[in-house]
Amino acid sequence: MKKLLFSVFLLSFTFFVFSKVQASNPPAKAQTIENLKAALLGETTASAKYLAYSKKAAEEGYSKIALLFKAASNSEKIHAGNHKAVLEQLGEKVEPNKFEVKSTNENLQDAYNGESYEISTMYPEFLKTAQEGSVNLALITFNYAYQTEKKHKAMYQNAINKLAAGEEGTMSSLYMICTTCGNTYDGQAPSRCGISMTPVERFITIN
What we know:
It is built from 4 helices and 3 strands, in the order ααααβββ. The chain is mainly alpha-helical. Strands 2-1-3 form a 3-stranded antiparallel β-sheet. A hairpin with a 5-residue loop joins strand 1 and strand 2. The model is unreliable at 1-24 (pLDDT under 50).
């Protein structure tokens, strides 16, 4: 009898715990879907914006900064594609935001601010929610973007410094971008991506 009562108690407790876990997952999953939409919107807009910034930099005679923006635009396009792939089964569509093209110096600062927000606030929060909701594909695509944006922020900071010092011409003439995760190298990439382990043969070269 004691064994029976214990079994009933254990079964009831297990069901209670399982119910709590189940109850906590749907909201996290639903929020992750909204986060994916926001990330897709942001990355799609960033890709278009950086391409426009690249053209502006070229017009102002800053060819190396134009190259950086072009590389970043390709990288953000990969991030957007990854986010979209996770959302495709849901049939969601997101339209890009509007943006204004200013001077190259202002555009660099805008890009730097955008990357700073993504790595300090946006992606850490999105990763936490995806973890809580056990949305593994979202975890992968968010992490790819998060790790890459940290490198972009450093590149934009370097470009701001170089432009201020009149040393724009010393910036890299080669960028290599991983087609899996968007990881961006300002120079020759290693044999495999440092984030996704993708072979260098599958990288995009911008020069």
